[in-house]
UniProtKB/TrEMBL annotation:
It comes from the Bacteria. Keywords: FAD, Flavoprotein, Monooxygenase, Oxidoreductase. It holds the Pfam family FAD_binding_3. Residues 2-300 form the FAD-binding domain. This is Monooxygenase. The keyword Flavoprotein applies. It comes from Planobispora takensis.
Length: 351
């Protein structure tokens, strides 16, 4: 919309672009996220920043045995990886981003548009508010009473820096892209980011309060707890947990797969705000594609409310199909190496 001369305001809760780390890496799919980047005129810049080699993937058992190893070709553009921070900065570019504008609630107008109420007590009216504010969206309650529920799986995240220089054995273990090891109710994933950084994710099937009695701000205590939960695993794999400097607890929540809402003029949703699902590489791509489709529809014809209604009716069934896939996929991934290998074999070239 910015490219076509239509003003768009981005309201961001973070006080500044560098207020916090943006997390790990995302794969942008050729038929989804890359489509949106092309429509925004950013595809060439994306390819310059992304890593084709990041598509490489290796699957291990909890004993460290390699079960599958898929390399990435130098010309493979199916779903190259890009750091979240780089992608965010690329997308924001010249847009009007208002930092430090946390939204408290959105109130649809009785006539048209919606009123945004901010955490500081101020208010502003808008023609259309698009809730792209994630799992715990402050915009969603304006159209839906749905509340995310815990899946029974938690991810504990940590980071390794300068892996090639400081931890060459772990660098070889992870490879050029990602490595995942699977056991019953446990998964250990390590994924390359740019700048020699590796993000490590320990997935645990269990209660949301699995860490009761452990101070989450005490890295030694969290590390000891995790190592106990992965007791018996290959010692080389456990080094990924031992070398972490801090640990972030991330319970995985979802919305119902078929989440919809009564169309409400002046407000709509996209991405995790609309269809929160387990992180199996789809959510960000859907959000990107939905943003592009909504923008193009608004530009193509008059009648804002009719356009938004049509967008929602297109988005809902597609998101439901992907959510069902992701929810079922998460169950399979935490059910052991055999189920994980079978799932990936369905979507990867032969080893």
């Amino acid at each position: 919309m910015h490219r076509h001369g239509h003003p768009v305001t981005v309201l961001e809760r973070d006080p500044a672009p560098d207020a916090r780390p943006q997390g790990g890496t995302l794969d942008m799919h050729a038929g989804m996220g890359q489509v949106a980047l092309a429509k925004a005129g950013l595809l060439e810049e994306f390819h310059a920043l992304s890593r084709r080699e990041g598509q490489a993937m290796r699957i291990l058992g909890e004993d460290g045995a390699v079960l599958r190893d898929w390399p990435a070709g130098p010309d493979d553009d199916r779903q190259p990886e890009i750091d979240r921070g780089l992608l965010r900065d690329l997308l924001l570019g010249p847009l009007d981003v208002r930092w430090g504008r946390g939204v408290a609630e959105v109130v649809p107008s009785a006539r048209d548009g919606a009123l945004v109420r901010f955490a500081d007590g101020s208010e502003e009216p808008y023609d259309l508010v698009v809730g792209a504010d994630g799992a715990w969206s402050r915009v969603r309650p304006a159209v839906s009473a749905a509340i995310p529920h815990y899946t029974g799986v938690t991810v504990v995240e940590t980071t390794l820096d300068d892996v090639d220089e400081r931890h060459p054995d772990l660098a070889r273990l992870v490879g050029d892209g990602s490595m995942s090891a699977y056991g019953a109710d446990r998964v250990l994933t390590a994924q390359r980011n740019s700048g020699g950084r590796v993000m490590v994710y320990a997935q645990l099937r269990g209660p949301v309060d699995w860490h009761t009695g452990v101070d989450p701000a005490d890295p030694e205590a969290v590390r000891s707890c995790l190592l106990a939960m992965f007791h018996g695993w290959d010692d080389g794999l456990l080094e990924l947990l031992r070398r972490g400097r801090a640990y972030v607890n991330r319970p995985i929540h979802t919305l119902p797969a078929a989440h919809t809402w009564t169309h409400t003029p002046g407000v709509t949703l996209l991405g995790d705000a609309a269809h929160l699902m387990p992180p199996l590489g789809v959510g960000a791509n859907l959000a990107m594609l939905e943003g592009a489709e909504l923008a193009e529809a608004i530009l193509a014809r008059p009648g804002l409310d009719e356009v938004v209604r049509a967008y929602e009716e297109l988005m809902w069934p597609r998101a439901a199909r992907w959510a069902e896939f992701a929810i079922a996929g998460l169950r399979r991934l935490v059910s052991g190496a055999a189920e994980a290998v079978a799932l990936f074999d369905e979507f990867q070239p032969s080893a």
